[in-house]
Amino acid sequence: MHKQDELIEAAELIPGDEIDRERIENSVTEIIKAVGEDPSREGLVNTPRRVARSYEELLAGYRTDPYKLINGALFDVDYDEMVIVRDIEFYSLCEHHMLPFIGRAHVAYIPDKQVIGLSKIPRIVDMFARRLQVQERLTQQIAVFLNEVLHPHGVAVVVEAIHLCSMMRGVKKHDSRMTTSAMLGYFRKNLATRTEFLDNISRGAESLHF
């Protein structure tokens, strides 16, 4: 992450709403002991601190102020055609096993007198992804938030992801992936609009690799 991006993200955090690093470190130490390892071993002695710091970044979505994130980047325009931002990479943690799921989000909206700055849509995806999540809720949250902020004619979100909880454990299906969608407004009501969006995101779409 570039230094400028770190400063922008820091400005978006809710003041005083910080994670309890010490509590996480103590918990990780107990997990290390519980699996039969020695937390004082050289390779593990700093692991609780590293885990706490990584959770601070991976779960920053809980502490992000969505309106500071947008920072007034809404613009009046005489434009009412579909806007699509596709192949937005994201990383999230499954709330059931706290293992990563990794994928791409495709987001579209049809403006009603206002558009949002291009960089804000990936930031909105990241804000909701950096929480303990399930993919279905993540998809819906992105769509609902954009709908509330922009009041567009419609919003569409499609999310495709691979889940390490099904790759590493359980069924151990390495090639399985999950696709979820949320359609609001014109995208739900109008088949032609929905088809145009789906055709656009499928054209030249890259496969997920891990």
Please, could you describe this protein's structure?
By secondary structure, the chain is of the alpha+beta class. The chain folds into two domains: 3-63, GTP cyclohydrolase I, N-terminal domain (GTP Cyclohydrolase I, Chain A, domain 1, Orthogonal Bundle), CATH 1.10.286; 73-202, GTP Cyclohydrolase I, domain 2 (2-Layer Sandwich), CATH 3.30.1130.10. It has helices at 3-12, 21-34, 47-58, 66-70, 120-129, 135-150, 164-168, 186-189, 191-202; strands spanning 74-76, 83-94, 100-110, 114-116, 132-133, 154-163, 178-185. Strand 2 (83-94) and strand 3 (100-110) form a beta hairpin.
Question: Largest sheet, described in full?
Answer: 5 strands, mixed
Global outline: elongated
Number of strands: 7
User: CATH topology of the largest domain, which one?
Assistant: GTP Cyclohydrolase I, domain 2
Strand content: 15-25%
- What is the alpha-carbon Rg in Å? 19 Å
Which ranges are low-confidence, i.e. pLDDT below 50, for 5 or more consecutive residues?
A: none
Task: State the secondary-structure class.
Answer: alpha+beta
Provide the residue-averaged pLDDT: 89
What CATH architecture of the largest domain do you see?
2-Layer Sandwich
CATH superfamily (homologous) name of the largest domain: GTP cyclohydrolase I, C-terminal domain/NADPH-dependent 7-cyano-7-deazaguanine reductase, N-terminal domain
Question: Can you list the strand order of the major beta sheet?
Answer: 5-2-3-6-7
Distance between the termini: 20 Å
Oligomer: single chain
Helix content: 40-55%
Would you state the CATH class of the largest domain?
Alpha Beta
Which series of helices and strands comes N to C? HHHHEEEEHEHEHEHH
What's the number of helices?
A: 9
